[in-house]
Specification:
21 helices; Anaer_Dcu_memb_transpt; C4-dicarboxylate transmembrane transporter activity; transport; mainly alpha; 0% strand
């Protein structure tokens, strides 16, 4: 029976992934309905805490976007990228990484990818090189961000009152090591543009050649009056969250009682609640001080992307958690000996599941509780956290597709066999190196 139920889970994931958008979420609900009404499986707890964090963070990021803050950040990033065009393969991924760390979502990199592609092309650097590793770097930034949904899920799952700073001091340097390893493997990847037959064929078109070498002026449209203010407010909010996690004495404590979504049984306030409170309060301050309309926030692309993420995580994580809970003993018995002997093998399971779920937060929420159940030490689970970045393997993630579309030379591509695409090698190297470095830093800093 377990194999039939597992087949239903995989079918829901595959069909939902092909549907894209909210597809994963709604197909997860279909599978969950079968589990409950057909197989009489007891439903697990839905991932309410992660969903609320995503809503809070995305709403605040969307408010900053509506206030013009994202436009301001993109202009700053553009100056950095254009200052050293010959180093675009290194500068591109570093900028996208820190952008994601700051904003908590990889969707902020859409504005940077065309700049990276243009700078590389004009310098006659194969755009595949900086674009591929820049996309991977943006994904790794999610597992190094203090306000990402994946990091928040880790905080709620790991035992012992884990602080965000404990995750950051391991994952930030580990992911940077992984990115640098990825930069090394793509530095001379593929043929130079002058020797690439696809590019040379396109250059035979005079219109294409003229357009490629034309001077592209930066966007000189005036920034909205509250653009810089919104960035400052967002930055202060992120800083407050990090400090609150590092210095628990800053937070109020209450009388012990029944635990809820906001407070633990011992009376301490949950970090998830702190993130939600600070982020939405920051959004309110942006609206007040920048005079941004709430209608503009609702129409922002980040808000739409966040709403889709909430639906997806709601369905697919609830489905996965119900399956895991129903077969907890069987799964623990099957994986227990292997994970006890070699804890790092759990990273393989995280990577494989993330390939299917296309979400670091969903993978974390679905599988990390199993790691806790199997007795894996918290510092080892944090070391393996970057392994949840397997969403590049199947080339259907929006950032991958965007990078391919922005590369006018055609060097960034999906191969004949689907998985032999431009992002596979830098992705495998970067994630593997990040996990390996994670174990090193976890043992040094924990």
């Amino acid at each position: 029976m377990i194999w039939l139920q597992f087949a239903i889970l995989l079918a829901a994931i595959f069909i939902g992934a092909r549907m894209k958008g909210i597809g994963l979420g709604v197909m997860g609900m279909v599978a969950l309905a079968l589990y409950i009404f057909l197989f009489r499986m007891r439903p697990a707890e839905p991932p309410i805490d992660v969903m609320l964090i995503i809503l809070a963070v995305v709403s605040t990021a969307a408010t900053m976007q509506a206030a013009g803050g994202m436009d301001y950040l993109v202009r700053v990033a553009e100056k950095i990228l254009r200052s050293k065009p010959s180093m675009i393969t290194l500068m591109g991924p570093l900028v996208t990484f820190f952008f994601t760390v700051f904003a908590g979502t990889a969707h902020v990199t859409y504005s940077l990818l065309p700049i990276i592609a243009e700078v590389a092309t004009k310098k006659r650097i194969r755009p595949e090189r900086p674009l591929s590793i820049s996309v991977i770097a943006s994904h790794l930034g999610i597992t190094a961000s203090p306000i990402s949904a994946a990091t928040a899920a880790m905080i709620t799952i790991l035992p012992g009152g884990l602080e965000p700073i404990q995750i950051l001091k391991v994952c930030i340097p580990a992911c940077l090591v992984g990115i640098l390893a990825g930069v090394v493997v793509v530095w001379k990847k593929g043929k130079e543009l002058e020797k690439d037959p696809v590019f040379l064929e396109k250059m035979k078109d005079p219109e294409f050649a003229a357009e490629l070498d034309a001077e592209t002026k930066s966007d000189t449209k005036p920034l909205k009056p509250g653009a810089k203010i919104s960035v400052i407010i967002f930055a202060v909010a992120v800083l407050v969250i990090v400090l609150a996690g590092a210095f628990k004495g800053m937070l109020p404590t209450f009388e012990p009682g029944v635990a809820n979504l906001s407070v633990n049984a011992n009376g301490t306030i949950k970090m998830a609640a702190v993130i939600e409170l600070v982020m939405l309060a920051a959004a309110a301050l942006m609206l007040l001080f920048t005079r941004t309309s709430t209608t503009e926030v609702a129409k922002a692309s980040l808000f739409t992307a966040g709403a889709q993420a909430v639906v997806s995580i709601f369905g697919v994580v609830w489905m996965s958690a119900t399956f895991m809970a129903a077969h907890e003993t069987t799964i623990e018995h099957a994986l227990g000996d292997m994970v006890t002997a070699a804890p790092w093998t759990f990273a393989i399971a995280l990577f494989v599941l993330s390939m299917l779920l296309f979400s670091q937060a969903a993978t974390t929420k679905a599988l990390m509780p199993l790691g806790v159940l199997l007795g894996i030490a918290p510092h080892n689970l944090v070391a393996m956290f970057p392994a949840t970045n397997g969403d590049f393997v199947l080339p259907g993630y929006p950032t991958l597709l965007a990078a391919i579309n922005f590369d006018r030379t055609g060097s960034t591509h999906i191969g004949k066999y689907l998985v032999n695409h431009s992002f596979m090698i830098p992705g495998l190297v970067s994630v593997s190196a990040s996990v390996a470095a994670g174990f090193l830093f976890a043992n040094l800093f924990w």
